[in-house]
Amino acid sequence: MKLSHIFTNEFSPGKLFNIPDSPVNIMLDITNFCNNRCLYCYNSDDKVYKQDTPNKEELIKVVSRIGQTGTKEILYLGGEPFASPIIMDLLETGKKYNIFQRAVSNGSFFKTIDYCKDLKDKGLEEVGISFHSSEETNHDKIAGRDGAFKDALTGLENCINAGIKTFIQYSPNTLNTKTDILTMVNIFQDSFGDAIKAYDLNRLLPIGQGKTAKHLILEGRQWYEFLVTATSLFEFNLEVHAELTPFCWINKMADKYKTPDPIIQDIYRLNRGCFMWVAQLPLDHRGRIKFCPTGQSVGPSILDVEWSHYWKTSDLFNEYRSFRWNQNCIDFQSHTACNFFYKCLGGCKYSKGSHYEEDIYSMGMNHILDGDLHNA
Question: Which one of 193, 250, 316, 346 is at 20 to 30 Å from 355 when CA atoms are compared?
């Protein structure tokens, strides 16, 4: 199912989306443990959270349930997913159900090519390696561990040589120069040629440990300037996605700084939509429903409910999908919305630090739709 098919033309509560029979993809935490201590990690530093260890049989059941109910893509997260030996069993299970299996990692456990080849044989098809900077000192400082940068580089090289498709998970922050992302691309192209074809650009949030690292988070003009710089990555023939920012705000900033239209169009192009609870679903290591990969569990385990029915009909999901809580982007009385709504769905619902709130950058209904929504 294409994500564009999820949208309807009806601006009424609960009528905005054609919900698929199962999530298009699921983001599954498989451990709370991580050997890095990233300063702006979205996970909690709470001891109870960190000591909540996964159960192998339970996780295998979760992956099996995902496969049995039709989801065809899993993104393994954590913590550090490859810190857990359970990852091999999960990959084997997902492979049985023909699930496309991806992961994001700090790279430190990819110490040999043979280990990476084993992961590929088990069913790992794609992996993103996290980098916080092109500078080793900055990366290690943010990661909270000496040697983290070298480990990430070694892991990246071993995954490439093992034939695993790789991408870079980059976290822009105030320690880096404005052009650090371009420096990183040049370094990796010199080292690996065109083996790395995609970059995922994080929008850091004041959640979990990140609440104490707000000074590292790009905001306002800094974030916009980063998006403008990131459009240059398309010149390297790369696939580029940035964490969602409301299009109305992008337009306002573009007007303010007289940004040329080709750059504006490239910012639109890299701006990745958020489809949480509409087509995507995050789960913790017990299969409990999360609102966003960056947050804590807010619902039951998919093992404890009639999953397919629950996904389509539960009050938990329907409250969010109604969008009644959004007073900025939609006017349900007039059945109209900002003409960017179906491109950005109002922006990030976690940007203020609690789940589904309007994005801190959401400007409201400064453009009203009439006509075909899909062409807005």
Answer: 250
